[in-house]
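S.,

Sequence below, as promised.
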Amino acid sequence: MALTYSPISTDWPCQVKNPGSYDWERSAAKWLRDLVPARYASYPALMRHPVLLARHAQIQVQHEMRVARTALQTARAELPALGIPESVIEHTIKMYAAEVRQLHHIARSIRVVSQALADGGAGRPH
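The prediction came back faster than expected:
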């Protein structure tokens, strides 16, 4: 089954124009740049090749997911020793869980944008 990257999809980021529309690759690159640390903007190869930038953003988000999962999995065991009150620990656990969900959504969005970039965004999105 072909990967769908229709902007109608909940995975397509609203900040990115429809594939095939005027300047859509620029909007995709801008969105992807916002997902990686700012220092990566100084690397010409990443800025000139949106597909490469998308690959890097995917890797970046995968690492962020690992960090958030580790923080979530260790919060209950490690935070009390730091003197963190139980109510703050519960809030922190909810925060990390929400972040993991958000990062999963971002990763799916990167995948559909990356696929559209690799396909050239020609014609109507499917």
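Helices lie at 24-33, 44-48, 50-78, 86-119.

Coffee later?
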